[in-house]
Amino acid sequence: MTLACRRAAASDTAAILEVHRAAFSSHLESDLVAALLTHRSAHPAESWVAQVDGVVVGHVLLTPGRVKADPALTVMLLCPLAVLPSHQHTRVGTALTRAAIDAARDAGVRAITVFGDPEYYSRFGFESLLPGGPLPAFDVAEGQRDAWQTLLLGDGADLTRASLDGKRIVWADPLMTPSLWEG
Asked: Which of 59, 124, 136, 165 has its CA 20 to 30 A from that of 89?
């Protein structure tokens, strides 16, 4: 098995959507990815695929957000990450997440947020900064608060954290739906 991660190309879209349909029990994630890949408010995004022996088996998307109080602060949302069921638990998701984080760091992104499994994402340095911030687009249920996590990147992490404290992030239009944040 030869695993390789690379930036997604437009020609990967059908395979990317198929990965998301196969990985999740509903079409919510694949529909969201389709909307984010084409919506102008979701760019510039970091879209990465994982291939095993030349076949796309995983995908991750990082979508930019905006902090109204500090428009120069670069923040991205890791959402969603998907791996074909046949390739889950084979480090594909880990490789994709690391590739996306590295690309964001190289691009000067100051923070990445995720609404996901704290046990999984803490391996990459994500942690819940609530009740401070950054705050999700919409309030999440008390039992889901630990799922909203942030990874601070680069030098000046304390300054970035202070800049995000108590700030609500505005995401691309397809992400600004309260039901997406219910967990």
From this structure: 136
